Amino acid sequence: MMEKLRQLDLHFADVEARLGAGETYADPALVARLNKEQRELEPVVRAYRDYCRRQNDLADAAALMSDADMKELAQEEYAAAKADLERLEEEIRILLLPRDPDDDKNVIVEIRAGVGGEEAALFAHSLFRMYSMYADARRWKVEVDSLNETELGGVKEICFTIEGDGAYSRLKFESGVHRVQRVPETESGGRIHTSTATVAVLPEVDEVDFELNPADIEMQVFRSSGAGGQHVNKTSSAVRLIHRPTGTVVECQQERSQFQNRDKAMQLLRSRLYEEKVREQEDAVTNQRRSQVGTGMRNERIRTYNFPQGRLTDHRIGLTLYKLESVMNGDLDEIIDGLTTAEQAEKLKNSQTEKR
User: Fold this and answer.
1) DSSP conformational letter for 21
2) Which site among 39, 150, 253, 332 is 20 to 30 Å from 242 CA-CA?
3) How does pLDDT run along the chain (356 residues), one tens digit per residue?
4) Residues 97 and 344: beta-carbon distance below 8 Å
5) What is the C-alpha to C-alpha distance for residues 127 and 155, in angstroms, rounded to an integer?
6) What are phi and psi of 320, to 5 degrees?
């Protein structure tokens, strides 16, 4: 492991030197690639350099223990350096785990109302608001691609794109069934209802990642509409794409131009088919990933939002928080950090098992 880290350190220094060379900036694509490499390498290289520094501190402290005047201070420094080395070694092992190649990508999020009628649609809208506020706090950009509203302000289904560094790495755990327990606005008797909404998080996929055959795609155009048929366009600018081999259907109607809607729909179709291809490949090789926290199978209940008690429970990791209001206002980091840690622990366990 130490030799691998040494090589990464040398490569990181080379990347920094190339970024510091004026001639590099004549090639924007090269600059973008080097910047990405630098961002990816920096955490592990920083941890490795801290590890080397603390190793030297440990050796210096050991040498000072023979000095009677310095022995007590040296013992304290030795213990502190040893604890830091153990912590850094664990941190480095996690940083060296294989990364999800999609982690740095933007995401396409689809939310659909599930069981519960109008209350499920209102909950779906609440989830969209929650993710929008989380994205805003991280200075990510949110764009709605398609929206089907209800008369009471709920959402039957919504598809939106979130653009930002590491968006997929943070939001990929959100895929699955979200359950809400609360008294609906339409409930006059004060009874608590249970409703659901499904969330799907797809990495945004470029043409170079997944190629589509235009001959396999049927395009239909129609007029955009809002709740109850309001806001109907006078032109047929909304686009529906049908992928004939798989029967996959996507729509986009938020842009004013048919061409813009077509481009957005193509992006969504490409991402859906890419996700399905990756899933098929994984299923063919191993079912291991299905048992990990990050899979978010859509037929599984992953989280419960209990409004009367102000309680949120993520069932995958047994995490319960009593700060539901702040979570619904976009405070998701504690949940996502817990899911990330659980996935890393699972990966470490699997890697150690494979070594044996």
Assistant:
1) S
2) 150
3) 788 888 889 998 999 999 989 888 888 888 888 988 888 889 889 999 999 999 999 999 999 998 888 889 999 999 999 999 999 988 888 788 777 788 888 999 999 999 888 999 999 999 999 999 999 999 999 999 888 998 888 999 999 999 998 899 999 999 999 999 998 876 667 788 899 999 999 888 765 456 677 888 888 887 766 544 444 455 567 888 888 888 888 888 877 778 888 888 888 888 888 877 777 755 654 443 343 344 334 456 899 999 999 999 999 999 999 999 999 999 999 999 999 988 888 877 776 665 55
4) yes
5) 10
6) -125, 130
